[in-house]
Structures are given as structure tokens and as C-alpha cells.
Design brief:
The chain has 301 residues and is an all-alpha fold. Helix content is 65%, strand content 2%. The chain has 15 helices and 2 strands.
């Protein structure tokens, strides 16, 4: 009986190795034993096809599983920074295809991920991070100062000193978050816009943006008395020398065009510009002007 069991186990080991690659995935004594005992040992030795069909059922039911070393390697890999980016079930067959006859390990799986990244499907988080990194690199390339060439500064010594300063600035900007680059991009785009384009942004917004201007987040239920209080506080701050009087409209820097203050405008402007507004006119006056615009738009509806 023991001789028959060994024969059945040997065939089970060969079938699991050849029919369910990679060869070492199911190569364990427990799996061979489980598959062999699915057949009566006192009978004839089943064919490879019979073993394969039975193995498929056992694998599907979870009775035959990858070896402990196999599972540990994948579990450890998917807990690394690289592995977390590809921790999807659809990626396992790709990793297994390139493991071949080797023993799986974190280093091997990391190497496969690096060499075959185009075949792998990233998680949603990894895809979003990759898109953000790409966007940040593009904006860094656009805004980071460029190193001087001999043509631009022939003096080698002076050029080396200046390039050292520029390189330090480039390295500093490389650490910036994407939001800081986006602020620079917004300011640059606004500066390059025509008057018509700027008016389209502020005064010809789509219905959703008009609604946001009417029902913004600040002072949503402001009454006339509250508006008067904002105006009075603003005037008091101006008389105390804390802020300058706020104009009727905001003039876009570098442009001969003015637009109404509004909560939508504040939401579109870079944070630095809004901060300068608050430093120049104060929160009470800016909120009062924005609320005036809201009231005017509400009256038109």
C-alpha cells in the first residue's frame, strides 16, 4: 500500500508541476498527498488527465494551495512600497509567468515589477499618485530655472557660481507639492489670458458656477443687517489704519480689466493672491463685497 501511495504521489507531483506552472507553486508534500488520496490506491494508477482534472477541482476548492514559501513571498512583496502599487489579483499570473523555475522572493518579485511594469495593472491609488507625479514633474520642468550654458555666460568661473545657485533652487523646487506648482500655473495662465477670456471665466460662468456664486459657503444666510455690520466693521478697520478702503471691483494684476468681487472669484484665485487681498483690505470688507455680488446675482434670478 505504501508503495502504491508513493507511486500516486510521484505522479501527482509531476502533474502539479507540469500542468499548473510555475513548477514550484504547488510543490509540497501536503499537496501531493491530498491529490494522491483522491484515488483508490488498490486500483490502477490513473492517467495524467485524470490527475489534472482532479487537481483542478481541488485547487478551485482550496484543498490544494500554493506552498507556504510561495504565499509568504507574495505577502511580503505586496507589503512593500513597490508591491502595494500592484497588489491586485489580476497581476499574480504575470508575476508567476516570469518566476519560471526560480524560488519566489521579494527581491525577485520587485525585479519583475521593474522589468515588466507595462504589463502590470496599478491600483487606483498608485495610478493617481503616478499621474500626480507626472504632472508635478512637468510643472517643475516648466518653472524650475534652467542651468546656464557657455553661450549664455561665457565666463566659466562666474557660470559655475551661478549654476550652483540655480541647482540649489532647482533641488528646492523639486520638493514642492503639486499644489504649489498649480498655483504658479494658474497665475501664469491668468496673466497670459486676453480680456475676453478673463471675462468669460468671471462673468460668463456655467450655471453650476453661477449657483456657487449665489450660494457660496460664507455668510450663506446673510441678512441686510449682517451686511451692514460687515460694512461698518470694515470702515472702522480702515479708520483705525488697519486696512485700505476696498474698491468697487478687483483689478486683475497686469491687466486693464476689473471684475466684481465674488466667492467664486476667491475660489479660483491662487491662495497667495487671496492672502494679499485679506492683508490689504481685511476679511470684513472682502466678504462684504462678495456678498454684494451674491445679492445682485440673486436679484436677477
Amino acid at each position: 500500500m505504501e508503495s502504491a501511495l508513493n507511486q500516486f504521489k510521484q505522479r501527482a507531483a509531476r502533474v502539479l508541476s507540469e500542468a499548473f506552472p510555475p513548477p514550484k507553486k504547488y510543490a509540497s508534500e501536503a499537496n501531493w498527498h491530498t491529490l494522491a488520496l483522491r484515488f483508490p490506491l488498490e486500483g490502477f494508477l490513473p492517467s495524467d488527465i485524470m490527475f489534472k482534472n482532479e487537481a483542478q477541482l481541488l485547487i478551485a476548492s482550496g484543498a490544494i494551495v500554493p506552498t507556504a514559501a510561495w504565499q509568504d513571498a507574495f505577502r511580503e512583496f505586496f507589503n512593500t512600497s513597490v508591491g502595494r502599487s500592484f497588489s491586485l489579483d489580476c497581476n499574480r499570473p504575470i508575476f508567476e509567468k516570469y518566476i519560471g523555475l526560480a524560488d519566489p522572493s521579494v527581491s525577485l518579485l520587485t525585479q519583475i515589477a521593474s522589468e515588466h511594469v507595462n504589463e502590470l495593472v496599478p491600483t487606483n491609488e498608485a495610478a493617481a499618485q503616478a499621474a500626480e507625479d507626472t504632472r508635478r514633474a512637468q510643472l517643475w520642468e516648466e518653472f524650475a530655472p534652467k542651468l546656464l550654458t557657455p553661450y549664455e555666460m561665457p565666463n566659466q568661473y562666474a557660470r559655475a557660481i551661478e549654476n550652483k545657485r540655480i541647482e540649489a533652487r532647482r533641488n528646492e523646487m523639486w520638493e514642492w507639492p503639486l499644489s504649489r506648482f498649480e498655483e504658479l500655473k494658474t497665475k501664469k495662465d491668468m496673466h497670459n489670458m486676453s480680456k475676453e477670456e478673463l471675462r468669460a471665466i468671471v462673468n460668463k460662468a456655467e450655471p453650476a458656477r453661477i449657483q456657487k456664486m449665489v450660494a457660496g459657503e460664507r455668510h450663506e444666510n446673510a441678512e441686510p443687517s449682517q451686511l451692514e455690520l460687515l460694512r461698518t466693521r470694515g470702515e472702522a478697520e480702515v479708520m483705525a489704519g488697519m486696512f485700505q478702503p476696498i474698491p468697487q471691483q478687483w483689478q486683475i494684476p497686469g491687466k486693464e480689466i476689473s471684475v466684481d468681487f465674488s466667492f467664486a472669484l476667491l475660489a479660483q484665485l491662487p491662495k497667495e493672491i487671496v492672502q494679499r487681498m485679506m492683508q490689504r483690505w481685511g476679511n470684513n470688507q472682502v466678504t462684504w463685497r462678495c456678498q454684494e455680488t451674491r445679492q445682485r446675482l440673486s436679484a436677477r434670478k
